[in-house]
Amino acid sequence: MSTVESYLTDEHRRLRDQVHAFAREEIAPRVARMERAGTHADRDLAALMGTLGWTGVLVPREYGGMGAGHVAKTILIEHTAYVSGAAGAILQASLIPALALQYLGTPEQQDEWLPQIADGLWSTIAVTEPEHGSDVLGMTSSARRNQDGSWVLNGHKTFIGNSSIAGLHLVIARTGEVGSAEGAGAVEPDRSRGRRSLSAFLVEADRRGVCVEPQPFTGLHGFSAGDLRLREVHVPAANLLGGEEGTGLVAAYGASVVCGRLNLAALALGLHQRLRDETVAFVTKRPRKGGYLSDKPVVRRRLAEIESALMNSELAIYHSSALLDSGVPCDPALINAKLTAKRAAALAAQEAADLFGGYAVRADYPFARLDRDIRHVAAPAGPDDVQLLRLGEEAAGVPRDIQWSLLFTGDPKTAREVALSA
After folding, report:
1. Residue 365 and residue 15: Cα distance in Å, rounded?
2. How far apart are CA 376 and CA 373, in angstroms?
3. Which helix or strand (DSSP H or E) is residue 364 part of?
């Protein structure tokens, strides 16, 4: 019995069955083509996942979404990533801006955009910049207000997931004085560092001055995470998220902590599971001295390391997902889920590499693809050092003035009020 069955309802199991069927029939036949295509996004696959409503897994039913919660979201990402890391990456990247819109948007913005997202519109959250990275408060992308209340955006964003397939970009830009949050990563900066200096804007992909530049990556082939350039992009006042300045940092950090970290953990989990299964299949069929590799105690010890790490990862991720669905504040659990899942998958890759031996670098074996994809989980939403810093602060009793997991699972009205009063 799986370690996560106790977290699942019958509805969750039906969803899992649906994902398995879709992955088998639609994703698996595309994997080889996606590998050949490199980092050009597979638009057909994205469109198919959109028609299933998976982009709206967290969107409330009144907007046409699934309203299924974070456990369901984890199931979707995990089991698509099992077949293709790129498919899992495509799905997870657009759930982050959708959550920010759901909790921080005005009623008019939610009425306009959430049904479109639920119907398969892909979106991005554009935060990271080439010269500032994790120093979010140091970003230089800017928005200036015209006399009629409209805005003009300029800036350069990088590592923007789903940049080439998105119809909507949630852009974080400066509307106040430059601040600093040195080494912040996905860590909540101090209140005194100018939270209100950043705002968030809904920018349609077809607006004049919006330019997407694909970038090459070594893995996750079929997924795009390119640059987004904004050159004198005009947007109406109605596109300012929340209707007021100052929601940018809360949108960037809150959605990243609550959704981004757990999404990446689920992505790592799916890759880890596939790596475990491929490794077991390899060693149980590889002849050695009248038996098979799997008969050797040293091989079984390595399999045990892979399995133990997988079980720890599953529990951390599904426990965190269940806490979110229950509305329980759980920021440390979310941080730990990402840290545990990334480390577990990396450990599994190292153990598997030793077991595959020379076959680990053969292009006709799946190990090389899985190993490359796992490496792409490390940096987004903060590398290990960021997660450890936050967990260390939690252990030391450093007070936090915002619990993101409470803010982004409760009443959206409260989230907007907090964002605008921070």
Report:
1. 30
2. 5
3. none
If DSSP codes are grouped into helix, strand and coil, which group holds residue 123? strand
Alpha helices (H) in 287-330, listed in sequence order: 297-325
Task: Report pLDDT digits (tens) over 163-220.
Answer: 999 999 999 999 976 544 433 333 344 443 456 789 999 999 999 999 999 999 999 9
**Can you say whether residue 72 is alpha, beta or left, with left for phi > 0 and alpha for psi between -120 and 50 degrees?**
alpha
Pairing of strands 168-174, 123-126: parallel
Q: Which two tokens stand for residue 63?
A: 């907007």
Residue 2, SS3 per DSSP = coil
CA angle 356, 338, 32 (to 5 degrees): 45
- Residue 203: exposure state from Cβ atoms within 10 A (0-12, 13-18, ≥19): buried
pTM passes above 0.90: yes
Q: Among 232, 100, 229, 112, which residue's Cα sits nearest to residue 170?
A: 100
Q: Are the C-beta atoms of 234 and 130 separated by less than 8 Å? A: no
Query: What is the secondary structure of 65-122 as a DSSP string?
Result: S----HHHHHHHHHHHHHH-HHHHHHHHHTHHHHHHHHHHS-HHHHHHHHHHHHTT--
Rounded Cα–Cα distance for residues 23 and 264 (Å):
19
Backbone angles phi, psi at 201, to 5 degrees: -130, 140
Q: Quick one: pLDDT at residue 419?
A: 67
Token duo for residue 43:
């638009």
Q: What is the mean pLDDT of each run of 10 residues along the chain (422 residues)?
A: 87 98 98 87 94 97 98 98 98 96 96 98 96 82 96 97 97 77 39 70 98 94 96 98 93 90 97 98 92 95 97 98 95 97 97 96 93 94 90 93 85 73 64
- CA dist 285 and 127 (Å) reads 47
